[in-house]
Design goal:
alpha/beta; 13 helices; single chain; 3-stranded antiparallel beta sheet; 8-stranded parallel beta sheet
Length: 303
């Protein structure tokens, strides 16, 4: 099965780290591996043949499904949480206050319009992604230059979820590294993944700035993953869509149905991404078998 896949079932709802961000009414069901596999099997029955996993426990669910079906299914390993990008001996994700403070308070890292949007709007209204302490000291140029990839940590993350044919690289770290001018670390990640015989795909959230930077860099990935839907994207829908339309690689959307009413018109939302943004497939998450099946069927019809 080649890339891009029309439908990829996300595994975060089945993980200890992220399941609480999904439907709390299903929280305890999602602690039951049998229940989780039943949701994945429903997606498979709907035509989904691609599954995302960030942690070994979810990879185990994928492998259980793989053993139970009579044809190949494809794993998308997503090691972007605490993957070994470091500053002063700490994971970069623990330095978010200082990183966001850097591009908001120092000129030259982001367009002024984005700096203002984060400072005056996103910091409070989207605090899980852009919340930061405005008193945090911005990074110095010396500190930015000292950011590094601990390759042993990265290799361990890759080993722990090594069943993926594809590897999603970057994540939040990609957003910050490209913003800070350290896209060289993302290049190194792609080299490591290629050397392992796996296929790298870039995952980012700041699509409007990261995708153009990766394109200009000629990043050696087979595609991009970015959050966008019919009415929303970071930093704004218009600039994200423009970047995706211009992208040199195929783009898979996530958070494609994330804004309230879009769940009531999912086919229309998917068709919009196909026709208006040239998106090639969708990574979706769900906690219920019926939704997993029906969404997979719809996406395979649309794409």
């Amino acid at each position: 099965m080649g890339y891009p896949a029309s439908a990829i079932l996300g595994g975060d709802a089945f993980s200890d780290v992220f399941r609480a961000l999904y439907d709390l009414r299903c929280y305890w069901n999602l602690t039951d591996p049998d229940y989780c596999v039943s949701v994945m099997k429903a997606a498979y029955d709907g035509g989904c043949r691609a599954f995302d996993f960030s942690f070994p426990a979810v990879q185990n669910l994928f492998q259980r499904l793989q053993d139970s079906v009579g044809e190949p299914i494809v794993g998308y390993a997503n090691p972007t949480y605490l993957q070994g990008t470091m500053l002063n001996g700490k994971h970069l994700q623990y330095c978010r206050n200082r990183i966001i403070s850097t591009y908001v308070q120092r000129e030259g890292f982001m367009p002024d319009s984005i700096r203002k949007k984060v400072r005056d709007d996103l910091r409070t209204n989207t605090c899980m992604v852009f919340g930061f302490d405005p008193e945090a000291e911005p990074l110095s140029d010396v500190e930015i230059a000292s950011i590094y990839l601990d390759e042993d940590v990265y290799q361990k993350r890759l080993d722990d979820i090594g069943a993926g044919k594809y590897v999603l690289i970057g994540g939040t770290d990609a957003d910050w590294l490209y913003t800070l001018g350290r896209g060289d670390i993302i290049v190194r990640m792609t080299q490591i993944v290629r050397r392992r015989g796996q296929i790298p795909l870039l995952l980012c959230h700041y699509a409007s700035t990261v995708i153009p930077a990766a394109d200009e860099q000629g990043l050696d990935v087979d595609g991009y993953f970015a959050p966008i839907n019919k009415s929303w994207a970071w930093f704004d829908q218009e600039s994200a869509k423009k970047a995706i339309l211009k992208a040199n690689k195929p783009v898979t959307a996530f958070m494609a149905f994330a804004c309230g009413s879009l769940t009531k018109s999912m086919r229309e939302s998917a068709e919009y991404l196909r026709d208006e943004a040239n998106v090639k497939g969708i990574l979706y998450g769900t906690t219920k078998a019926a939704n997993a099946r029906s969404t997979a069927m719809m996406l395979n019809e649309v794409f």
